[in-house]
Amino acid sequence: MPRASEELTNQRREEIINACASLYETVSFKDITIRDIGERTSFTRTSIYNYFQTKEEIFLALLEREYESWGRDLEDMARSHEHMSADEFADLLSATLENRGTMLKLLSMNLYDMEGNSRMECLVAFKKAYANALGRVSYCLEKFFPYMTEEDKRKFLYAFFPFLFGIYPYTTATEKQREAMEEARIEYPRYSIYEISKSFIAMLLKSFGK
């Protein structure tokens, strides 16, 4: 593919993903259509099909981009520190998640739909971004907690990454959900993404401490 054509393809893909991200801030996944996304781009709606076949592929590309951004944050965190205590690590890792609300929302609410209705090449590209983030967290554990065994690190990763799927519902609730909890006499846990993450990460690391 000629360079100019490749650049245009990347620009248009980003424009589509940006339009999807903007809509997702105020409109639910099930209510967003390719027509809605197309109306926020500078080219015709039918042109979207040159880049994505379904809306789920667009959302999966958005999630892929979120993982890539998180991976860069994790890399910066590892590069900028030579040593880190468990509390400092919990603090900084939680701070990286605070900026990834879209990632956490997609994980908790729409992952199966996105993966199920996307072509294999789209799914593989997303899985590579996920694997990179997994590797970044693993590298941080190796660098800052050398006393952790391979089994310790595996246990951390397979507790931490599933935990990510449940953060968003516990930190964000609609007015309808809050009203229902009040009527059911359930106290709504008012924690931020940072707060709930730091508490969990610190507790998890403590279980592997010296």
Task: Note the topology.
Blueprint (H helix, E strand, L loop, with lengths): L2 H22 L9 H5 L16 H25 L6 H13 L2 H9 L1 H6 L3 H25 L5 H22 L3 H9 L9 H14 L4
Please describe what this structure looks like.
The protein is mostly helical. It folds into two domains: 1-51, Orthogonal Bundle (Arc Repressor Mutant, subunit A), CATH 1.10.10; 55-206, Tetracycline Repressor, domain 2 (Orthogonal Bundle), CATH 1.10.357. It is 71% helix and 0% strand. The chain is built from ten helices and no strands. It has helices at 3-24, 34-38, 55-79, 86-98, 101-109, 111-116, 120-144, 150-171, 175-183, 193-206. α1 (3-24) crosses α3 (55-79), α3 runs parallel beside α7 and α5 (101-109) crosses α8 (150-171). It starts with a helix and ends with a helix. The mean pLDDT is 93.
For CATH, the homologous superfamily of the largest domain is named as Tetracycline Repressor, domain 2
Tally of separate helices:
10
Provide the residue-averaged pLDDT.
93
Low-pLDDT windows of residues: none
Helix content, binned percent: over 70%
What CATH first level of the largest domain would be assigned? Mainly Alpha
Number of domains: 2
The dominant shape is globular
Distance between the termini: 54 Å
Question: Sheet bearing the most strands, described?
Answer: none
* Structural class estimated from helices and strands: mainly alpha
Tell me the number of strands. 0
The name CATH uses for the topology of the largest domain is Tetracycline Repressor, domain 2
Radius of gyration: 19 Å
Please give the CATH architecture of the largest domain.
Orthogonal Bundle
Question: Beta-strand level of the residues, as a percent range?
Answer: under 5%
N-to-C SSE string, H for helix and E for strand: HHHHHHHHHH
